[in-house]
Amino acid sequence: MKNIHRPYGTYERFFKRPLDFVLSLIAIICLSPIIGITALLVRIKLGSPVLFCQERPGRNEKIFKIYKFRTMTDAKNENGKLLPDEVRLTKFGKMLRATSLDELPELFNILKGDMSIIGPRPQLVRDMLFMTEQQRLRHIVTPGLTGLAQVNGRNNISWEDKLNYDIEYINNITFKNDVSILLKTIWTALIKRQDIETEGMATAEDLGDYLLRVGTVNQDEYDRLNTAAKNILL
After folding, report:
1. Is 145 helix (H, G, I), strand (E, B) or coil?
2. pTM to 2 decimals?
3. Angle of CA points 61, 106, 10, to nearest 5°
4. Which of 6, 51, 143, 152 has the fewest CB within 10 Å, making it most exposed?
5. pLDDT: is 41 or 156 the higher one?
C-alpha cells in the first residue's frame, strides 16, 4: 500500500497524542457522574452487558476493541437469529445515539491510545476489506472519536464522500484543523444533533452492503470479502 501521508509536523509528532491523553483523562473525570448514570440506565433498560465491544481496524490496520454503551436489545426470532436493527433499537437506545452518550466509553479507547480525539472514524473490519487501496490509506493514522467526515454530513453522506474526507484529513493534520473539527462536532452532534442517523435507516449501511446494492461488487465478491473479514476476527 503506497503511503501518501504527509511528513509528520510538530503538532502531529509531539503534541497530538499527549493532548489526547490529557483531554480524555480530564473528560473521563469530569463526565464520570454522567458515565455512571448512563451505565446504570443501560443496565436497567437494556440489560447486561452494559458495554458494546467490537473489534475494529486501528492505526496501520491493527485490530482493537472499541467500547460503546449498548443501544440495542438482544431480541431474537424463533430460530435464535437476531431481529433486525430497527426492531432491537429501542427508544432509549435512539436517545443515547441522538445525544452521543453511547460514545462516551470511547474516551477510554483514547486514553489507551487505540483512538485519538480527532481522526477517521474506526469502521468495521468488513468495511475495510471492501475499501479500495486508496481508501484504506485512512488507516495509516490513529482513528478518532470524530473527524472531518463527521462534521460534513456524518451518516447522511455517501460512502465515497465519507472516505474522501478521511483521506483529505490525513494529508492535513494540524492543530488548527483539529480544533475546528472539534468545535464543529460540538455544534453539529451535541447541539443541533444532526446527521446522527442515515435517512430512512435505523442504522448506517455497511460499506459492503452499499456496494452490493449499487452494483459495484457482485454477490460472489461480497460473500468472499465477508468470509475474509470473519477469518481476520477468528
Report:
1. strand
2. 0.90
3. 65
4. 6
5. 41
